[in-house]
């Protein structure tokens, strides 16, 4: 009796397990693509498959897949498998894939993570392909090549040139009788204008969001006083420069020109939620390609938005403004087909048709002649961005070498430090000191 | 007379009280529903949930999806994954729970402690070894890494839950059944499963919801847009580095709540009528 | 404990004694029932667990292979990482405020919704809706709209002349707005309580009504004891979940744990260390410290359970 029962159970259990394994193996059977990509070139098939990953918005997905279709048309033996997503989780997934030796062959890369990936040997050295002409870089801006190179090796090609700047609401300025800023404006001018705007507009409206915690914008201020963010694997700017920066913003908060700590803390990177977009401020600090988004998402669509360079320092030793790669495209160091990877990268940035499709969605093209070719086709707002980049290229200094490993942690600590000051949880001197020792510790460890 | 009107009074007060809490609970959801009909620039500037004008564009453009994969594709994929996960969890977790709750075997305490420990370790640090494991099995970019673990009872939460329920059932039932000549399998199938139904229903609802909602593992294991599930589809609308399509995102969020909602409404009645436990328990 | 229940228990312990004699070894059957779980444990769970334990003694960066560094990670954690201490503090506050609140609220609503009112199904669904939203990205926007500086709550307060702070973005209150979010999503605990309440045999109530026990008496002497295994489960699981709480703080603070690290939950910090800062070794070490913490807590609750948890199976 009992054994019979047990047998019945055995049957149930084993059939359950069978189902489970069947479900799994049938699932596994669905991935010849993935398997083939990692297994590499099968002798019978001549076609090469490359996986390509990027983050972005729907527009970018549409444009990039169109570009891929064109590439596949021109090179029928290569197929590109796109893997795209939004920004959230993109780098989590990428690092997991790298750990599992299953990273895509072609990778959209961010400036902030370039060193982290390149210095750990995960990115393809593109130098051989740029010297043999597979990947043409002669017409690329020199500073953009430098920005994608580490220790003399090219790891990343710029997909779009960006520059930091101040977006301003020209309609509001006009309404208040304030003259629009000029290229030569200084931090002092900026503070005066912000205070004026806040005063004239009344409560609930600010001149500018408080961006004292945005490392990238502080970087420009630091550059105006001679140092990049990092120098000799140490924090670059002196304690005095950092203190001055925090003091400047403290005064601007106190006078009402900049947003209150609470509003600042409530801001996200999503441009739709920025004070400028929701009609709470007349300025914001942004990257040039973001101007297009601001124009699309601002609350009052009749308002005119324009862009000016980051204010100059009083008695600055050099211009802080610089051209920066928006996004990079890189190869996977473990790819089986490095040459084809280089071909696709070349296609993406140098081919007239491909670049015509991609337009300036990732920023202004890095190739000078492509830039010229695009100019007649630009919309009015794209024209604004191109003009701004032109302006910056005349008034800028070279970009610093890519950030060292550990940047993301320092970046986070800088934001915390500024919040600590704004919420009055420590004096500026004290917080700055902590920040400096903490950062140098992080940098010391990662070397 | 007096007492009955007083009684009516308390019932009304009770209703008003419950309704009030219900409104507070619901307002954010109403706001979300309202937002799904608003153009993007109004979503962030208006607090009142009722849209000034009704705009179905968000639903149209959200449904059209990406590169020929309409949002329906994501819904189908999510349904497949969730159904697989629910089935697996209900079967294997209840089996393991029965063993832990009713059977005597060696190393029971050790096994139970191990089971609890698997719940305690944060997911983020086992993710990479799991990825490497599934990648070696060739399972990456399939639904297998999302479903297979449920068929081997890796969700300790539900084992523990069901154990607690089974332990709430009197042993006399098993013993009576044993006297009637039932073995463990029949006791499990004829007595424990029907009586632990609320726990199984709970397992179903939670597994479905949690799988339906799970962004991180689905992001890591699925790469092909045609295999994307609802949470991944929703994030495709958002790109915090540039422009996000909030309107369609809200519209599709609302839409993707519908299956959960239907499932819940269908299953929740088991918490009222339940099963005829009383007769069995006496 | 009421006399009826005592009588039931007495009957049970009698049968239990009878049963003890008849107990036989069930290793074989147990193995069959446990087979899927054992396969999962050996094939899917133990390996990654062991790997993470190993990583915790290395400088694993995810992107390159790891190097053994002994107990360095643990030493750093306890001597030179103020954010580790901060995240512990935040998490402890969160656990000890949100878990009791959530459970009491869930139990109260479950009792209210268990019987005696029309339209139960609708109410139950309505109360469950916030939980249905889960960790959706929409929640982050929503919460700011409700509790932000000029959110709905503050606009209502402004009508009464009160000027309130931004509950989400002020470091003094931000953690509590996440506590509120977690309490608001009490649906899962409520469901578990509701299904637990189904296990209370109506005869128990009938018998006690005959005895003339009041509502409160019934609750204390019948409902609570019968519900205790489920309460026990909820206490343990909610605490474990709260210790590991990640999603809510992540979406509300935009992944930063800010402002001023006021919502830097342990798991959020662990995640940032592992994935954003490429210190997976350190993150793994943190994870095992968390296991230790939760383990101690769970042991304490298990130890206390014999004083307050009543199993119908006679406590075996």
From TrEMBL, chain A:
Quote the Pfam families the UniProt record gives.
SBP_bac_1
> What parts of the sequence cross the membrane?
none
The alphabetical list of record keywords is: Signal
Matching InterPro entries: Bact_solute-bd_prot1, SBP
What SUPFAM superfamilies does the record tag this protein with? Periplasmic binding protein-like II
Signal peptide span per the entry? 1-25
Q: Which Gene3D superfamilies match?
A: Periplasmic binding protein-like II
Superkingdom of origin organism? Bacteria
**Under which name does UniProt file this protein?**
Carbohydrate ABC transporter substrate-binding protein, CUT1 family
What species does this protein belong to?
Paenibacillus typhae
From TrEMBL, chain B:
Q: Does the keyword Transmembrane helix apply?
A: yes
Q: Where does the sequence pass through the membrane?
A: 12-33, 80-100, 112-134, 146-166, 187-212, 246-267
Indicate where this protein resides in the cell.
Cell membrane
Cited InterPro entries: MetI-like, MetI-like_sf
Q: How does it sit in the membrane?
A: Multi-pass membrane protein
GO cellular component entries: plasma membrane
UniProt-recorded name of the protein: Carbohydrate ABC transporter membrane protein 2, CUT1 family
Organism encoding this protein: Paenibacillus typhae
The uppermost taxa in this organism's lineage are: Bacteria, Bacillati, Bacillota, Bacilli, Bacillales
UniProtKB/TrEMBL annotation, chain C:
Q: What SUPFAM superfamilies does this protein map onto?
A: MalF N-terminal region-like, MetI-like
- GO CC terms of this entry: plasma membrane
Domain ABC transmembrane type-1 as annotated: residue spans:
88-301
Keyword field contains S-adenosyl-L-methionine: no
InterPro entries, per the entry:
ABC_transporter_permease, MetI-like, MetI-like_sf
One biological process term in Gene Ontology? transmembrane transport
* Location in the cell: Cell membrane
Q: Which PROSITE patterns does this one have?
A: ABC_TM1
Superkingdom in the source lineage = Bacteria
Q: Where does this chain mainly localize?
A: membrane
- What CDD domains does the record tag this protein with? TM_PBP2 (cd06261)
Keywords assigned: Cell membrane, Membrane, Transmembrane, Transmembrane helix, Transport
Mode of membrane association = Multi-pass membrane protein
The membrane-spanning stretches of this chain are 28-55, 92-113, 125-143, 175-197, 218-237, 282-302
Q: Which family does it belong to?
A: Belongs to the binding-protein-dependent transport system permease family.
Q: Which PANTHER family match?
A: ABC TRANSPORTER PERMEASE PROTEIN, ABC TRANSPORTER PERMEASE PROTEIN YESP-RELATED
Recorded protein name is: Carbohydrate ABC transporter membrane protein 1, CUT1 family
Give the organism, scientific name: Paenibacillus typhae
């Amino acid at each position: 009796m009992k054994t019979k029962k047990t047998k019945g159970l055995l049957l149930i259990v084993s059939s359950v397990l069978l189902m489970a394994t069947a479900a799994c193996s049938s699932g596994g059977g669905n991935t010849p693509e993935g398997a083939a990509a990692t297994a590499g070139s099968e002798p019978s098939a001549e076609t090469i498959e490359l996986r390509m990953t990027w983050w972005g918005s729907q527009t970018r997905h549409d444009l990039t897949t169109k570009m891929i279709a064109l590439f596949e048309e021109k090179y029928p033996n290569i197929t590109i498998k796109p893997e795209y997503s939004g920004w959230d989780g993109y780098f989590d997934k990428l690092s997991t894939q790298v750990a599992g030796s299953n990273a895509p062959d072609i990778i959209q890369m961010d400036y902030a993570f370039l060193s982290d990936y390149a210095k750990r040997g995960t990115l393809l050295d593109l130098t051989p392909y740029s010297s043999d002409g597979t990947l043409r870089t002669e017409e690329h801006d020199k500073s953009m090549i430098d920005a994608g190179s580490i220790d003399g090796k090219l790891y990343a090609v710029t997909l779009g040139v960006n520059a930091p700047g101040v977006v301003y609401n020209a309609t509001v300025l006009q309404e208040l009788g304030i003259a629009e800023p000029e290229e030569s404006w200084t931090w002092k001018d900026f503070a005066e204008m912000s205070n004026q705007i806040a005063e004239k507009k009344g409560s609930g409206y600010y001149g500018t969001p408080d961006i004292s915690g945005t490392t990238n914008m502080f970087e420009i201020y630091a550059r105006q006083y001679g140092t990049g963010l990092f120098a000799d694997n140490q924090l670059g700017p002196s304690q005095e420069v950092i203190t001055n920066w925090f003091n400047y913003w403290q005064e601007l908060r106190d006078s009402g020109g900049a947003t209150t700590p609470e509003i600042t803390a409530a801001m996200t990177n999503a441009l739709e939620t920025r004070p400028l977009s929701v009609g709470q401020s007349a300025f914001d600090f942004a990257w040039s390609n973001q101007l297009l988004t601001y124009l699309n998402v601002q609350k009052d669509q009749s308002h005119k938005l324009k862009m000016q360079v980051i204010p100059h320092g009083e008695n600055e030793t050099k211009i802080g403004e610089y051209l920066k790669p928006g996004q990079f495209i890189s190869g996977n160091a473990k790819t089986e087909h490095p040459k084809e990877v280089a071909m696709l990268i070349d296609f993406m940035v140098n081919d007239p048709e491909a670049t015509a499709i991609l337009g300036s969605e990732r920023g202004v093209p890095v190739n000078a002649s492509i830039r010229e070719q695009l100019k007649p086709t630009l919309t009015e707002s794209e024209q604004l961005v191109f003009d701004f980049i032109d302006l910056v290229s005349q008034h800028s200094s070279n970009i610093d070498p890519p950030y060292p490993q550990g940047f993301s942690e320092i970046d986070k600590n800088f934001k915390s430090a500024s919040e600590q000051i704004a919420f009055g949880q420590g004096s500026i001197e004290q917080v700055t000191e902590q920040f400096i020792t903490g950062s140098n510790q992080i940098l010391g460890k990662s070397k | 007379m007096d007492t009955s009107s007083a009684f009516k009074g308390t019932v009304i007060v009770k209703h008003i009280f419950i309704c009030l809490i219900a409104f507070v609970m619901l307002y954010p959801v109403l706001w979300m529903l309202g937002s799904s009909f608003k153009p993007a620039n109004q979503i962030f500037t208006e607090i009142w949930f009722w849209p000034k004008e009704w705009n179905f564009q968000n639903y149209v453009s959200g449904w059209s999806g990406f590169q020929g994969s309409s949002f329906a594709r994501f819904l189908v994929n999510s349904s497949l994954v969730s159904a697989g996960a629910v089935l697996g969890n209900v079967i294997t977790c209840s089996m393991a729970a029965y063993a832990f709750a009713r059977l005597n075997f060696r190393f029971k305490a050790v096994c139970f402690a191990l089971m609890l420990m698997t719940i305690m370790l944060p997911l983020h640090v086992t993710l990479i070894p799991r990825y490497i494991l599934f990648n070696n099995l060739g399972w990456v970019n399939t639904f297998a890494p999302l479903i297979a673990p449920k068929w081997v009872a890796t969700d300790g939460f539900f084992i523990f839950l069901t154990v607690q329920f089974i332990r709430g059932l009197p042993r006399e039932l098993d013993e009576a059944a044993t006297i009637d000549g039932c073995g463990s399998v029949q006791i499990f199938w004829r007595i424990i499963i029907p009586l632990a139904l609320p726990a199984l229903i709970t397992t179903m609802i939670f597994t479905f919801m949690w799988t339906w909602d799970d962004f991180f593992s689905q992001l890591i294991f699925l790469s092909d847009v045609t295999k994307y599930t609802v949470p991944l589809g929703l994030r495709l609308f958002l790109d915090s580095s540039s422009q996000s399509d909030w309107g369609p995102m809200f519209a599709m969020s609302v839409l993707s709540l519908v299956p959960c909602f239907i499932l819940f409404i269908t299953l929740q009645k088991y918490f009222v009528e339940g099963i005829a436990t009383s007769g069995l328990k006496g | 404990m009421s006399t009826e229940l005592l009588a039931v228990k007495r009957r049970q312990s009698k049968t239990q004694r009878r049963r003890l004699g008849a107990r036989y070894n069930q290793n074989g059957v147990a193995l069959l029932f446990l087979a899927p779980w054992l396969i999962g444990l050996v094939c899917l769970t133990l390996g990654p667990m062991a790997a993470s334990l190993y990583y915790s003694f290395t400088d694993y960066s995810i992107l390159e292979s790891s190097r053994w560094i002994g107990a360095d990670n643990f030493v750093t954690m306890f001597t030179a990482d103020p954010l580790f201490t901060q995240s512990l503090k935040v998490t402890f506050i969160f656990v000890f405020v949100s878990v009791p609140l959530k459970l009491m609220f869930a139990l109260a609503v479950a009792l209210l919704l268990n019987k005696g009112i029309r339209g139960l199904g609708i109410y139950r669904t309505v109360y469950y809706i916030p939980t249905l939203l889960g960790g959706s990205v929409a929640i982050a926007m929503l919460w700011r709209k409700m509790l932000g500086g000029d959110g709905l709550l503050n606009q209502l307060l402004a009508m009464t002349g009160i000027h309130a702070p931004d509950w989400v973005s002020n470091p003094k209150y931000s953690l509590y707005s996440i506590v509120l979010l977690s309490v608001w999503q009490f649906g899962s605990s409520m469901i578990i309580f509701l299904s637990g309440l189904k296990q209370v045999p109506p005869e128990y109530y009938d018998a006690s009504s005959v005895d003339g026990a009041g509502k409160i008496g019934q609750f204390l002497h019948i409902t609570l004891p019968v519900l205790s295994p489920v309460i026990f489960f909820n206490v343990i699981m909610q605490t474990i979940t709260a210790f590991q709480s990640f999603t809510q703080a992540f979406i509300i603070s935009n992944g930063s744990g800010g402002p001023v690290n006021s919502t830097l939950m342990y798991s959020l910090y662990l995640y940032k260390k592992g994935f954003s800062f490429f210190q997976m070794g350190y993150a793994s070490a943190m994870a095992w410290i968390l296991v230790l913490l939760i383990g101690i807590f769970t042991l304490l609750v298990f130890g206390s359970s014999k004083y307050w948890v009543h199993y119908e199976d006679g406590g075996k």
